Amino acid sequence: MHLDATEPYPAVWAAILGGAGLGLAWGIAARIWMRLISTRPEFTITGTAAILLVAMTFGAFVGLAYAARRRGWRGWGYYLPRGLVVAFFVPFGGFGGAPLMFAVLLATLAVTQTAMVGLWVAAALAILLVAGTDIGVPPMIAVIASAGAVALTAWKWIAPRWHGEPRLLVVDTWFQRTGRTIMLLLAAVGFVFVAWQVVTNKPGWLGPVFVILYFCLLYPLFFALRVGLEPKASAASPEATQLRSSSQE
User: Fold this and answer.
1) CA 76 – CA 84 distance, rounded (Å)
2) pTM of the complete model beyond 0.85
3) How far is 7 from 142, CA to CA, in rounded Å?
4) Tens digits of residue pLDDT in 41-97
5) Residues 185, 186, 189: CA angle, nearest 5 degrees
6) List of residues 6+ apart from 52 with CB closer than 8 A
7) What are the structural domain ranges in the chain?
């Protein structure tokens, strides 16, 4: 799907309301899933309202950003809605949703941004999860992401000194692919972490069913976050263009 265009549609109000409605539907589905997998089911109005509000607000900004991109808005009218999409995705990390946010954000970065940008974000998130939470993220994940980010940054600093070297593009391509692979693996770790807990707490056929439902919850978030993170087609850097081309192969 090409996000950037100059079409007179969709209507801004329709995109915002549609996004908010889809976000609300997602929040309801997520709340039901949380209730079903919980080993100590309980219902609180405050917690449920917060989850629904976060999902609905995120959906509304996704709708606004989608309309801005499809209608060809420029300047702050283009970048502000995209920034709001990313900013209002962060609260998904609350309410025990850190693995969900971690997995979706890394997977989206892997297919939309350069490996260096994605790995720095992955490193920052991993360090925060290891140092600031007790969800059991292995410290090695933070080490791998940080080492990859430093290595790619050093490469980007050294590479211009070898301008004109015929093998430079090949090496850079492999670095990009390696960085993307690391991000996707880290995203997979976040997914497997939740899946393992679900299967452990729900033995029998219920465990795999709830894991599949969890994947169904992540999938729309991935596409929604792409609206904010996908580089602008007409202003994409050569690296971003190369990244998108290789992802379509």
Assistant:
1) 11
2) no
3) 43
4) 667 788 889 999 999 999 999 999 999 999 989 999 999 999 999 989 988 887 778
5) 90
6) 24, 27, 28, 31
7) 12-248
